[in-house]
Amino acid sequence: MSDNFSAEVSSRICQHMNEDHSSAVGIYVQAFGGLMEATSAKMLAIDSQGMDLMAQVSGEDVPVRINFDHELKDSEDAHQTLIAMVKQARVKSK
Question: 7-89: what CATH class?
């Protein structure tokens, strides 16, 4: 994990995403993880290169690593990137 993504920063982002944006986390595993059959997902960790998620598929936990299209600079870059990814996934699904 880069210095910009300490365990505390990763934990804070994951907690926020899981509590306030769980549907977005599900969209990430479906659109970028290729698990269209996932019924739910949880963000486990985030770093400057990507995010680690756990998806539920047919009642089983499936780990998913999604790499970003660029190296994130800081938590604000993470915020903007995660928003852009949800928008991109929603456009693809139409």
Answer: alpha beta
What pTM did the predictor assign?
0.91
User: Which candidate, 94, 35, 20, places its Cα nearest to that of 66?
Assistant: 35
Which tokens is 74 given?
């800081």
Residue whose C-alpha is closest to residue 71's, from 81, 62, 61, 63: 81
**Cα–Cα distance, 67 to 56 (Å, whole number):** 19
Q: What is the pLDDT of residues 29-86, one digit of tens each?
A: 999 999 999 999 999 999 999 999 999 999 999 999 999 999 999 999 999 999 999 9
